[in-house]
Amino acid sequence: MDTIEYYNKYASRIFEDTVDRDMEPQREEFLEELREIDGDTILDLGCGSGRDSLAFYEQGFDVTPLDASEEMCKLAEIHTGLEVLCMDYEDMDRKLKKYHIHLAIFCSPHNPTGRVWERWELENELPGILEKLTEALCQNGILFLSFQEGDFEGQRSGRYFCEYTREELERILTETGRLKILKLWTTEDEDREAGD
Fold it and tell me: CB count, 10 Å around CB of 129?
């Protein structure tokens, strides 16, 4: 079973496990940067339950939720009342408008680096994904990404996970030639296995 199949199969359980998780501290970090650029359009990548999309929408932001799992999209639409785009990273550059900020909380751990590959069989997938995200950003737009720290890559608990060391992540982001790191920080993850 690949990762998207996993989310489709267990969508209801994942929704229940994540929809009420307190992400306010992470959202506040995000809002600080959003206020700096006076932006109001947000693309919520891997929106899952739609928890963060709804929170930002209720604060008056123009939010586009996106997820690759059809079943998660259905649940997120019910929860948020917003249209949720169902697409993976391969389709993003052809279908998205420009956004001030891309929010990717807990979806990035599923992106492979090229050391091991499960789905698209492309080498160094993360740089390609970053390129597509950059293309869909407004000038001076911001990527807000969340990764699990470590050096594991492979299947765990039925899903594909890819961890990064701080040094590896800094190198990948810098090598794009188009991104400038504004801030890197570490938070405690009380539910490391959930990763959603």
Answer: 21
pLDDT greater at residue 20 or residue 150: 20
pTM (two decimals): 0.78
Contact (Cβ atoms closer than 8 angstroms) between residue 111 and residue 122: no
CA nearest neighbour of 151 among 141, 161, 143: 161
Q: Check: CB of residue 102 under 8 Å from CB of residue 43.
A: yes
Closest alpha carbon to 3 in 144, 143, 108, 124: 108
Report in angstroms the alpha-carbon separations of 103 from 86, 106, 137, 187.
16, 10, 11, 16
DSSP 132-187: HHHHTEEEEEEEEE---BSS-EEEETTEEEE-B-HHHHHHHHHHTSS---------
Range from 51-65, 77-91, 127-141 carrying the lowest mean pLDDT: 127-141
Cite the beta strand spans of the chain per DSSP E. Answer: 41-45, 62-67, 85-86, 99-104, 137-145, 153-156, 159-162
pLDDT at res. 139? 80
Give the amino acid at 108.
Answer: S
Q: Count, in order, helices (H) and strands (E) of the chain.
A: 8, 7
